[in-house]
Amino acid sequence: MVNRKLAGKKILITGASGGIGMFLAIHVARAGGTPILVARSVGKLQIVSHKIEESFQVSCYYYKADLQDGVETKSVLDQIYFDHGSVDAVINNAGVAIFSYVAEAEWQDIEQMIDLNVTSLIRTTHQLLPHFIKQNHGHIINIASQAGKMATPKSAVYSASKHAVIGFTNALRMEVEKRGIFVTAVNLGPVRTNFFQKADPTGSYQKSVDSLMLHPNKVAYVIVQSLFTKCREINSPAWMNAGSRLYQIAPTLMERVLEKQFNKK
Questions:
Q1: Residue boundaries of the structural domains of the chain
Q2: How many Cβ atoms from other residues are within 10 Å of residue 207's Cβ?
Q3: DSSP strand E in the chain: where?
Q4: 171-174: long-range contacts (C-beta < 8 A, 24 or more apart)?
Q5: Which of 61, 62, 101, 158 is labelled catalytic?
Q6: Among 186, 177, 241, 173, which Cα is nearest to 218's?
Q7: Is Hydrolase found in the keyword set (predicted)?
Q8: Could you please report the per-residue DSSP string of 108-139?
Q9: 98 forms bridges with which residues in the sheet?
Q10: How large is the angle between the packed helices 156-176 and 107-114, nearest 10 degrees?
């Protein structure tokens, strides 16, 4: 169903070759927007784009880019503006997790999480922001995590990266709120995607939280519905967000009570 807020709007989505990103593209197209997809897997992007165009009779554009490469990112974003003239919103969805104790972690894995989850997100936003300011409208949606509010063992670096995203998002919101630009943080619990194939190759954590996992289609629908509205945060599931809030008040108590749950990774 066409949403008047999204009709004809160009929405750039990173990490759009599968999972939440793919469903974001579907819901943008269904609402009458124009998805512009960015990811490394060009084959998957082609499939997603073709299916969307076939299903919704809208244009769906895609661009291959390794967002950890600053030069490549700048080139692709410049190309997008050259091709389309403007972008109305960006959903910074690309991210990665590799669960491990810090002492046992590979440095390249630590570096990848910081590079993709934090540096590339800030780089993309930094390059798009002058355009949003010039056109006096835009929406920046950053996919963070409940892990950025409540850290657990084996996710120290991942939690740190998402905590950085939340901090960046909160400060940016205050900087641009009088320029017609909305800024939203999305803090999710576990989502049923291929995310965990790399985060936890053993499958033990995914198995332990399987009944609690969010569906990416439902998550994407809620995010797309928030576009071009003043929305500080999207937090899901509600019970996990309540736990995160309680953790801020009584962290020691929560760590004791939830020790077994925290160590399921």
A1: 10-262
A2: 12
A3: 10-14, 34-39, 61-64, 89-92, 138-143, 181-188, 233-236
A4: 172/125, 172/140, 173/232
A5: 158
A6: 186
A7: no
A8: HHHHHHHIIIIIHHHHHHHHHHHHHHHHT-EE
A9: none
A10: 20
Q: Of 33, 163, 162, 13, which is closest to residue 92 (Cα–Cα)?
A: 13
| Amino acid letter, residue 240 | M
Q: What is the dihedral of CA 246, 251, 256, 261, to 10 degrees?
A: 60
Block residue for tokens 């998402």:
162
Q: Answer whether CATH 3.40.50.720 is correct for domain 10-262.
A: yes
For residues 178 and 184, is the Cβ–Cβ distance under 8 A? no
Tokens 């160590």 locate to 263
What pTM value is reported for the model? 0.90
Residue 207 has pLDDT above 80, yes or no: no
**Pairs from 63-69 (Cβ < 8 Å, separation ≥ 24):** 63/36, 63/37, 63/38, 64/38, 64/39, 64/40, 65/38, 65/39, 65/40, 66/40, 67/14, 67/38, 67/40, 67/94, 67/116, 67/120, 67/123, 67/124, 68/112, 68/115, 68/116, 68/119, 68/120
**How crowded is the C-beta side of 17, counted as CA atoms within 13 Å?**
18
Task: Kindly report, residue by residue over 210-245, the tens digit of the pLDDT.
Answer: 556 789 999 999 999 999 999 999 999 988 888 899
Rounded distance between C-alpha atoms, residue 77 and residue 248, angstroms: 38
User: pLDDT at position 246, please?
Assistant: 87
158 as an active site residue: the answer is yes
Report whether 180 contacts 228 (CB < 8 A): no
Q: In this predicted model, what pLDDT tens digit does every residue of 58-88 receive, in sequence order?
A: 999 999 999 999 999 999 999 999 999 999 9
Q: Which two tokens stand for residue 153?
A: 């063992």
Tokens 């300011």 correspond to 133
DSSP secondary structure letter of residue 32: T
